[in-house]
């Protein structure tokens, strides 16, 4: 699964929900129109859990989860890109905000 996204990576979000914590996901949120798939959407599988409002996309071959799709509080479509899937960036240089997803 290949994609590209436009925008500045000013920070990342680390969620402690049961899924994100186990995967170690560092999320960067972008408006969904700013992320373009370079491989067909059919190449990705979808996992829904908890409230079934976020589409957790993953590769059915290797199992890696590069992004999720959902809706921002204002109703706009948003993509949560797993920064650990982007090569060539210094993750240690990106400020990380922590979100308590386990309590909601």
Automatic annotation (TrEMBL):
Residues 1-100 form the CENP-V/GFA domain. Keywords: Metal-binding, Zinc. Pfam families: GFA. This is CENP-V/GFA domain-containing protein. Belongs to the Gfa family.
